[in-house]
Amino acid sequence: MEIATQIRHEKYERLVAEARRLPALATAVVHPCDQSSLEGAVDAARLGLIKPILVGPTQRIRKVASEFGIDISGFTLVDTEHSQASAKRAVDLVREGKAEALMKGSLHTDELMGEVVKTDGGLRTARRISHCFIMDVPSHGEPLIITDAAVNIAPTMADKVDILQNAIDLAHALKFQEVRVAILSAMETVNPKVPSTIEAGALCKMADRGQITGAILDGPLALDNAISLEAAAIKNLTSPVAGRANVILVPDLEAGNMLAKSLTFLAGADAAGIVLGARVPIILTSRADSVLTRLASCAVASLIAEDRRIHAAKAVS
User: Fold this and answer.
1) Considering the domain boundaries, does residue 313 fall inside one?
2) What is the crossing angle of helices 58-68 and 35-46, to 10°?
């Protein structure tokens, strides 16, 4: 059992170790008014991954800390009245240059994202906002990025260009040696009756034309042909991606959610979550997440922020 646990967590432990070499990331923790969200922020701070700014009703946060023995004495607290005000103030802290990331606490994701996507005063960029799961699947040799399973319900092909580019940029920030994207469908041939196969073919051609950069794309691919070399060989699929994908673009949110949860509950995988496409990375955690999964989500945000700093410095020079 000990060996199995070690194998299961090996990829996340590497991400955390890499992020611990970086300066702690100034992170606005939005409405951490329950045990899991407050402990998650404190655990990440203890490892030097983030420098939390606790944004929420101060009395409630202190009450939770006292009730569960969580030491928050060294952290900055920003008092707000309620969850919506917490989300707004956290976004303002980013706009003021006081925070480089957001971390969801005990509020609904819609409340937080509603403030992030506001046209006036939000954190929008030219890129569409999307979500990535960074899956630690015990039977898979490297982290597996799945997108989008949490934000875009039924993305158009134009949306998928941004969703793809967000995921590819994430893979580079996580130092993937080669980014291999499988565009998922139910089959590996283009079928006019199955729209996701047509979109897959078009997205691959867009990559050939330089409209999507930084990765090798292949699709449409069924899931088995995307991640199993044996399955790809049986179908006579020869490409650098087939059987070796480390990024998977799903047709829609329902497919992505089912895939991620299937890997979690049937294959023993862990799922760290991050939202991309905004001015800063947004750490999305669930109350059901393990401690290591929460730490991995913080580590991913730290690595993204560092990658952006490097690119910004290059642009200036």
Assistant:
1) no
2) 80
Q: What is the mean pLDDT of residues 29-35?
A: 95
Q: From CA 66, how far away is CA 151, in angstroms rounded?
A: 34
Convert the pLDDT of each residue in 246-257 to its tens digit. 999 999 999 999
Q: Provide the token pair at 210.
A: 């330089």
Q: What is the DSSP string of 216-285?
A: EEEEEE-HHHHH-HHHHHHTT--SSSTT--SEEE-SSHHHHHHHHHHHHHHS--EEEEEEESSSS-EE--
What tokens does 303 get? 């690595």
d(CA 156, CA 278): 19
Instruction: Provide the number of structural domains found in the chain.
Output: 1
| Helix (H), strand (E) at residue 37 | helix 35-46
Neighbours of 127 (CB within 10 A): 15
CATH number at residue 222: 3.40.718.10
Q: Write out pLDDT tens, residues 47-104.
A: 999 999 999 999 999 999 999 999 999 999 999 999 999 999 999 999 999 999 999 9
Residue 153 lies in a domain: yes
Is 65 a domain residue? Answer: no
pLDDT band at 288 (very low <50, low <70, confident <90, very high): confident
* 277 CB-side CA count, 13 A: 24
Residue 211 lies in domain: 126-277
Comparing CA positions, the residue from 83, 84, 72, 78 lying closest to residue 41 is: 72
Pairing of strands 282-283, 270-276: antiparallel
pLDDT in tens, 194-207: 999 999 999 999 99
